[in-house]
Write a structure and sequence with these properties.
Number of strands: 15
Distance between the termini: 57 Å
Number of helices: 14
CATH topology of the largest domain: BirA Bifunctional Protein, domain 2
Strand content: 15-25%
CATH class of the largest domain: Alpha Beta
CATH architecture of the largest domain: 2-Layer Sandwich
Number of domains: 2
Structural class: alpha/beta
Helix content: 25-40%
Radius of gyration: 28 Å
CATH superfamily of the largest domain: Bira Bifunctional Protein, Domain 2
Shape: elongated
Strand order of the largest sheet: 1-5-6-11-10-9-7-8
RNA sequence: GCGAUCGUAGCUCAGUUGGUUAGAGCGCCGGUUUGUGGUACCGGAGGUCGGGAGUUCAAGCCUCCUCGGUCGCCCCA
């Protein structure tokens, strides 16, 4: 008989248990708690959409569209795509569900995203993000609120140490176009000082030269013009109001004049919370204002701003969470008392106390096994004078001790 | 797509210049010891040494190919 071959997991997917899963859950739970403090409503959007949702959002980034997306034809012949980002789907929903009526709309969501990439530290093909967006708000107040929320979340997670908010402005459409033209002129003028990759970028995506990692590009990048000289008065004022909002809330930031977004619908605020603790993947949380997107997708002109953060990356930055364990661990040391043990379990759980029981294997070894469970209270159940006896032992003088004793005493 | 590096038990790993029947710790199962009691002892199950081909009297170890993991480049919505 041929050996049955177990199907392998797909490259870039993860199975999580124990510490990894606990960290993941902690990020999601903390996000869900903090987002309520800021009035962001939970929304759900589909994991897959018409390919057009994302290809329209990504515009002329043909490499990304053709090589990085999980696209397939369904049985009806329609091209569908597993979502590689949240924003496009939310923008689509905003238009097709008539959510304009709720503007300004503050929403939050989290879940899996899919990108066909070579996995490496903090990068997976199925990865997960938390996401927050404000749709239909043109004021810099919205940008500031979103940034304060992000900063607050990182502090709640205890990962703000070593994480820096880097901030830039891409200006309004006029500022952005003028700056872009100046950058292209600058790089064209120093073409021979650029790496091959950057010469290639010059034709494809010139703004990207600014964050080239190639040391050969550093001299030319260092002398490249900042956007500041090209900002309109309005754009300058907008950026000022965002930073005023951060100052008022006590959020620290640093200017990164080299921080850019490749897509044209990004306007004004662009930001990333970065760290050097994640290898080559420095960005922990990133976002910006995308005033042009919804219009690009066939909707009404709708200013919007948002951010997203990788759950796996945040989870890696977390301090080790407490190991998963019940409050009570029961060692059933005599098999004739199984029913008593099950009654005790039901009573404890009914009283809102998490409890587990060890009732298999050699009875004389169950106590030793129970000791190794990091529970707050250990209960051993033995037989004495033909009656069940429950003995309690607390790892410390935990407050649950008395409560557990009270519940067990009701069993008679 | 490109590069570096690693694949030995369920997990973490050892394995000498190529040389008998591939080991340890943890975990699992059974037994001994103790008996308001955690760290002890004995035993057991569990391996196509990632896979294939080659060199050799002989390959976990050397060569080539291949698959997979990790990290980096490219890309980054």
């Amino acid at each position: 008989m041929a050996k049955i071959e177990t199907p392998r997991p797909i490259r870039g997917t993860q199975d999580m248990l124990g510490d990894t899963a606990d960290r993941f859950a902690h990020v999601v739970e903390t996000f869900d708690r903090v987002r309520k403090l800021y009035g962001f409503r939970r929304i759900e959007v589909p994991v897959f959409e018409s390919t057009a949702v994302f290809s329209r959002s990504l515009g002329e980034s043909t490499d990304v569209v053709s090589k990085e997306m999980y696209s397939f034809d369904d049985r009806g012949g329609d091209s569908l795509t597993l979502r590689p980002e949240f924003t496009a789907g939310i923008a689509r929903a905003y238009i097709t569900e008539g959510w304009q009526q709720f503007a300004p709309l503050k929403v939050a969501t989290h879940g899996p995203l899919f990108r066909y990439e070579r996995p490496q530290k903090g990068r997976y093909r199925q990865f997960h993000q938390i996401d927050a967006e404000i749709l239909g708000a043109s004021e810099p107040l919205a940008d500031a609120e979103l940034l304060v929320f992000a900063d607050h979340l990182l502090r709640e997670l205890g990962v703000s140490e070593g994480v820096t908010l880097t901030l830039n402005t891409l200006g309004d459409a006029a500022s952005r176009d003028a700056w872009r033209a100046a950058l292209v002129a600058h790089f064209e003028g120093h073409r021979d000082g650029l790496s091959e990759d950057s010469i290639d970028r010059l034709a494809r995506n010139p703004l990207r030269i600014l964050d080239s990692k190639d040391p050969r590009d550093q001299a030319v990048v260092a002398t490249a013009p900042d956007i500041d000289a090209y900002l309109t008065d309005e754009a300058q004022a907008f950026f000022g109001k965002v930073t005023d909002g951060l100052a008022a809330a006590g959020v620290a930031w640093t200017r990164n004049a080299r921080l850019v977004r490749g897509l044209d619908y990004y306007r004004h605020t662009a930001f990333e919370f970065v760290t050097d603790r994640l290898g080559a993947q420095g960005t922990v949380l990133g976002g910006g204002r995308y005033d042009g997107l919804i219009e690009n997708m066939g909707g009404p002109h709708t200013p919007a701003v948002g951010w997203a953060a990788g759950i796996e990356r945040l989870a890696m930055l977390l301090d080790a969470p407490a190991p998963f364990a019940p409050t009570v661990i029961i060692a059933l040391e005599n098999d004739s008392l199984l029913s008593f043990g099950q009654k005790a379990l039901a009573a404890l759980r009914g009283a809102g106390i998490s409890a587990e029981m060890i009732a298999t294997g050699s009875p004389r070894k169950r106590y030793d096994k129970a000791v190794k469970v990091p529970a707050k209270v250990l209960v051993s159940i033995t037989l004495a004078d033909d009656k069940p006896v429950a003995n309690l032992r607390s790892s410390e003088d935990v407050p649950e001790h008395a409560q557990v004793r009270a519940v067990l005493e009701t069993l008679g």
